[in-house]
Hints:
1 helix, Outer membrane protein beta-barrel domain-containing protein, 2 domains, Porin, single chain, two-stranded antiparallel sheet, signal, elongated
Amino acid sequence: MTRTMGIAVATFALAAASASTASAQTLMRETEMERAGQIGAPLNAVEIQVDSGYNQGFGPSVPATQGTQATGLGGAGLGAGLGLHYRANPYSSVGINGSYSMQNLPRGAEMRGATAGIDGAFHMSPYSRLDPWVSVGAGYRMMWEQPTGQNNDVFIHGFQLAKAKIGVDIRVSESVALAPTLGGDLSMFLWRNPEGRVGTQTVDTPRLNAFVFAGVTGRFDAGGERARPVTIVGRR
């Protein structure tokens, strides 16, 4: 009887020691994971996106219509954008966005541009300090040509048929990220509105134009949760 109780006590002590060792190993491995650069990712959060950088349009001028000349796209300029997304899970978000740009034309003229649209973003490594991502979408593009002197302003507009951006989020915290960003879109201007009472004119032979962007994007997440990856830790 005494011998049996001794064996039971020894077995219990051995099991407790093993559990303590396994627990310590688990804690150590979780600590090592944190050191490897993992960080919580937004889940069910509202995400504000802002960007700024270089932009430029390429391609043919928008053809002339009755009483107007062809409209060029201008040269290189600066632009800024703002977006509001819903981050449904750490790997994706969807939302609306807009942008504004400005270029200086020869002889003191100016060109202003704006877009409005929708897009979705897809994150490759949302739990890492460095998180590559890509976004795709479509929208509407508008441009205003403002010549000097007595010449009339001209407003051209049409569809942003497809747009895409790529970047790498540098996760400053669980709710803030900064990313170097490259982007581009394909647009087609279908209508022109000269200054005055002419009204909207249809561009008879619309052409495809390309626009590029290079700059920095910031993401700011509010609300929701900060999810962490589920990791299965082996026990010995």
